[in-house]
Design the sequence.
């Protein structure tokens, strides 16, 4: 009789699945970079890129020597080139950025000059109106203008007359009356004679020496 306790040999031993935590990472796996180190590297790169730039952030290297020249019709003096080159080097600007800085300053000075010139022309054009406004009689105004012109032509040289005309100072409310006073003061005095108006004398000495004959003083006998 067979032994009832015989073990079934067809069953195999059950095996448990391997623990997932025991899995190993591949040897060539790349670990994520340190965030702080990445930020520092990016900051350094940005700093290097901005060196030799304007605020716009355009890259460019600082040259050993800036090649700068004044723009056409620029109102800047020649010594402005050295000053702008010094400023550009202190700011770490590139050649292109320094040239643009020079152009911008030249245009700014030109705009300022034009605005001042426009203001002066407006003031100058008002001087003649102020002088004319002081006269109630237009005829008298024209007479005084003619008097001033005659005086200027007689006593002023061409350069001074040209300056007064171009600058407009000849119409200045303070200068015009002053020249008019000089013109009137320098006018020749009129000779007043005792002869009736319209009468003529062949010998002008006759009225001066009534006792004379033919211009000769009469002999006085004692």
Sequence:
């Amino acid at each position: 009789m067979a032994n009832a306790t015989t073990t079934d040999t067809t069953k195999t031993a059950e095996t448990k699945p391997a623990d997932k935590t025991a899995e190993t990472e591949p040897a060539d796996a790349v670990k994520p970079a340190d965030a702080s180190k990445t930020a520092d590297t990016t900051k350094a790169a940005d700093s290097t890129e901005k060196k030799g730039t304007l605020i716009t952030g355009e890259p460019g290297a600082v040259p050993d020597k800036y090649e700068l020249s004044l723009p056409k019709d620029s109102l800047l003096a020649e010594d402005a080139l050295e000053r702008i080159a010094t400023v550009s080097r202190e700011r770490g600007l590139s050649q292109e950025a320094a040239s643009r800085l020079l152009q911008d300053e030249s245009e700014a000075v030109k705009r300022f000059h034009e605005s001042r010139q426009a203001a002066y022309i407006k003031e100058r054009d008002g001087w003649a109106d102020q002088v004319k406004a002081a006269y109630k009689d237009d005829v008298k105004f024209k007479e005084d203008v003619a008097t001033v012109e005659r005086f200027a032509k007689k006593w002023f040289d061409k350069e001074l007359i040209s300056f007064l005309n171009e600058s407009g100072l000849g119409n200045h409310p303070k200068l015009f009356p002053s020249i008019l006073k000089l013109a009137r003061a320098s006018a020749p005095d009129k000779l007043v004679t005792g002869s009736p108006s319209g009468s003529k004398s062949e010998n002008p000495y006759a009225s001066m020496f009534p006792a004379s004959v033919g211009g000769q003083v009469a002999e006085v006998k004692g």
